[in-house]
Amino acid sequence: MTRAPGPRGGLIWGSLGAFQADPLGFLAQAAQEHGDIVRLRFGPVTAHLLNSPAAIEHVLSRNASNYDKATRSADRIAATTGDSLLSANAHAWERHRRLIQPVFQPKCFDGIKPVLDSLLDPMLARWRKAGRIDIVDEMMQLVIAAVIKVLFTSDIDPMRISAPLEVILADTWRRIEAPLNAAMLSPKLHRPAFKAAVRAVNDVVFDLIRQRRKCTQWPDDVLTRLLRAHEAEGEAQLSDTELRDAAVTLLLAGHETTANALSWAFIHLLDAPEIGDPARIFAEAIRLYPSIWVIERRAIAADVIDGFDIPRGSSVLISPYLLHRHPAFWPHASAFDPTRFAQGTPRPSAGYMPFGLGQHRCVGLYLANKMATHIIARVSHTVRLTLLPDQQPKTLAGITLRHEGPVLMRVTAD
Ligand code: HEM
């Protein structure tokens, strides 16, 4: 048996404390000191951090049938999303993926620009008047409003969803990090604030589903396509609970991820040697700040990767954040430089995976790209954003890669 190298950590909890204190710093140091496969121990959990494209492809793609999502993180997320795309239940995942994938094809979002403009026009007018903004809060509000419109064609107040979603994400991350948690024994033991937030999101989503079912004219949006998805598949129609699970999953997976990536893009835009193609700017933002900064899988059977044993039932951690800053693949890795993505510029094909790899690759990637590129283009052609002098944006690793606090920017007309 060949054990991969790794930090010794404490006697009982291993490296849990170091990981909780600074997850990104801890993983970066572990990879730097021990190489591309690192054995870690978090209390009773053994995990291997993989940081080479070949090992990552092995787990997520080539030998994916041996790695499932019956992990701590998927289990904690399922407390909100039920049995849906982000859940561990393989059968429910397959059915949801089959039904959802066709309604997220690129052509489904051809008409998205006017929808985004209806939100961007008043937002940009307000920014010019205000002269300074918190880019983090602005992107959160913009993206949730856009996602609500694209999914449900609804004008409900975005705060009714974004405030509870924030509570849900923070509480879920707290439970992923915690070695033991009362809510593992019974859902009744969840924190009252978490239960209230889930109820608030459910009220809005069930209401939207009820209203849609009563409507005679269904708009062309994701909810309608989900209500009709079974027709092409010859399957049973999604029940209200399945629809709710799918809708909440999409809200949760699509909102903070896209909003945080956009904030990072605007924060760095002025450092860029070339402020050109919005697609390259977005690609570079999610290279340096991949919103899903860590992906977890469980080894169903024992495996061997690059000569190191991966025990049955142990966890595997893959961090797009580390991979995208790997010095072997990315020269000047920490510099923000969208020209890396110019056509013809050599870059490692398997060293870039902001949307994941294999069968679980992000369903929302076309939507995220379309939203982000249009928002970057409109904002950067209309106003000039500069960081206020005292601002030092810092990353905060939770379920997504967030900002440690507000990030204030000055707005001037371009
Ligand atoms: C910058 C924006 C985004 C990034 C960086 C991102 C990243 C990712 C990544 C890395 C995964 C794979 C996770 C894994 O393998 O365990 C994933 C899955 C997923 N994403 Fe995204 N995502 C983004 C936006 C969106 C949007 C806009 C939606 C939908 C509205 C969405 C919905 C999903 C769903 C449902 C899954 C689960 C897919 C599955 O397991 O089959 N994401 N995303």
- Find the count of extended strands (DSSP E, 2+ residues): 12
Domain count: the total is 1
CATH top level is: Mainly Alpha
Bound molecules: protoporphyrin IX containing FE
Quaternary structure classification: single chain
Query: How many helices does DSSP assign?
Result: 14
- Shape estimate: globular
| Residues in β-strands, percent | 5-15%
Taking Cα atoms only, what radius of gyration do you get, to the nearest Å?
21 Å
The CATH architecture can be given as Orthogonal Bundle
Class by helix and strand content?
alpha+beta
Average residue-wise pLDDT: 89
Biggest sheet record: 5 strands, mixed
Strand order of the largest sheet: 1-2-8-5-3
CATH topology name: Cytochrome p450
Description:
This protein has 414 residues and is of the alpha+beta class. Helices cover 49% and strands 12% of the residues. It is built from 14 helices and twelve strands. The structure holds protoporphyrin IX containing FE.
Q: How would you sum up this structure in a few lines?
A:
The protein has one domain: Cytochrome p450, CATH 1.10.630.10.
Question: Topology of this protein?
Answer:
Blueprint: H1 16-21, H2 23-34, E1 37-42, E2 45-50, H3 53-62, E3 67-68, H4 72-81, H5 90-100, H6 112-130, E4 132-134, H7 135-152, H8 159-177, H9 192-214, H10 222-233, H11 240-268, H12 278-288, E5 295-299, E6 303-305, E7 308-310, E8 315-318, H13 320-323, H14 365-382, E9 383-387, E10 395-397, E11 401-403, E12 408-413
Parallel strand pairs: 2-8
Antiparallel strand pairs: 1-2, 3-5, 4-12, 5-8, 6-7, 9-12, 10-11
Residues 85-86, 97, 147, 249-250, 253-254, 257-258, 261, 286, 290-292, 295, 354-356, 360, 362-364, 367-368 line the site of protoporphyrin IX containing FE.
